[in-house]
Amino acid sequence: MIDNEINNTEDQNQELGIVTSRPTYGGDGRTAPRGKLHCYNWLEDIPGGFADFDIVEVQFKNTRKGFYRNSTNLPLETGDTVVVEASPGHDVGTVTMTGKLVMLQMKRANVKPDAEIKRIYRKAKPADIEKFEEAKARENDTMIQSRQIAESLKLNMKIGDVEYQGDGNKAIFYYIADERVDFRQLIKVLADTFHVRIEMKQIGARQEAGRIGGIGPCGRPLCCSSWMTSFVSVATSAARYQDISLNPQKLAGQCAKLKCCLNFEVDAYVESVKRLPSKEIRLETADATYYHFKTDIFKREMTYSTDKSVPANLVTLDAERVFEIIAMNKAGEKPLKLQRDGEEKEVQVSEFGDIIGQDGITRFDNKKKKKKRKKDKPDNPNRANNEGNNEPKGENKPKERNEPKGENKPKERNEPRINNLGNNRNRDRRNRDRQRQPKPNNGENNSNTDNA
């Protein structure tokens, strides 16, 4: 079903004029791996032998490529597995390009014309492929043991991968190191342990990230692990051209280097900036001088401010109007205002504003709410019992006062007991009322009783 969908897509691309390549193995029609994007040989259909070339491009593990001479004129196509010359022995790889375009690839790889080019022996036989698979099965165990050996020798390096030659007589160790490493002793120990010829190759952080793979911040698989085969240096100027904030955490990828995708659109930005006025030119008007503040490359609009460092009295103009004002200033004229007549934009006040933050993206997050203590109800019967139990007892109990009796006894107010604070206030008020009332005279009361 997947093959049918691929065939339908290719038919649609041919109708639309889109050129696609689908490398196949020779003979059985099996498709080559689609993980990496190889160059398309657009010269292979030219008749007359003008596109013929006796050198082919062969790819091995970890995007390692080499150029080999087809001295026996084998009918090779893209995707064929071949046995090539190596030192010592032979190696097994996959043909990725044939024809005249190989010459351009050799120039790109800085291969000199007079350099010695090894030759292709034959197409891989089942015995060659079987021996090659046996060598590949030993790569993982060899890598783990070599890491342990490097750690025992206290070398500041990381062995990232191991590649065995097709005949199993040679092993290439790919390592990462931040500084120069003396691994002469390591080579001796590895040769004695695995009984093969050892070759050390240093790779960069981008190659290591492409080998491991992962998901980028865009949500797609890493470009270096999916389709990129060559890595171009990336500079911070690419971020400046695109007006991207120079934040190292956002500009760096999983390899801790600048993201390769910064170079994808930088050429379009450079071409667009060339068609805009320079940012260093000031605009002179009758009232003030305006300095460049920001540029919207897609809308071809430029914003100017009356202050160099602070956004003040911002005015947005299109590129054509900026060119007109620059020409007027060169001629010694100063317009009254930057905008054209009737182009002043009114400030639109939005009817709704997110004042209390209800439109924030975190408004649905669960926030911890403080639990409020429940207040005691006035009609709680247990409250009165607790108050009665809180009275002092024994020696700490206050002495009873000689309160007046009979008619002179002040009337108590029926006030509800709400809480301890209210009880204390009522008690203090009753004590003050008692102190203000005059004390009865015992002598006068006795004489009146005798007369009666």
Write structural notes for this entry.
The protein is an alpha+beta fold and 452 residues long. Among the domains are: 21-124, no CATH class; 133-203, K homology (KH) domain (GMP Synthetase, Chain A, domain 3, 2-Layer Sandwich); 217-272, no CATH class; 277-330. It contains 14 helices and 12 strands. The protein has helices at residues 2-16, 101-108, 126-137, 139-152, 184-194, 205-212, 223-226, 237-241, 248-251, 266-274, 319-330, 381-389, 420-436, 442-451; strands at 55-59, 65-69, 81-85, 90-97, 120-123, 158-164, 170-176, 197-202, 283-284, 289-296, 301-305, 315-318. The chain has a 5-stranded antiparallel beta sheet. Strands 9-10-11-12 form a 4-stranded antiparallel beta sheet, covered by helices on one side. Strand 1 (55-59) and strand 2 (65-69) form a beta hairpin. Helix 4 (139-152) crosses helix 5. The protein is flat, with a radius of gyration of 45 Å. The termini are far apart. Mean pLDDT is 76; it is low at 1-35, 384-389 and 443-452.
Properties at a glance:
single chain; 12 strands; 31% helix; alpha+beta; 5-stranded antiparallel sheet; disordered N terminus; 4-stranded antiparallel sheet; GMP Synthetase, Chain A, domain 3; disordered C terminus; 452 residues
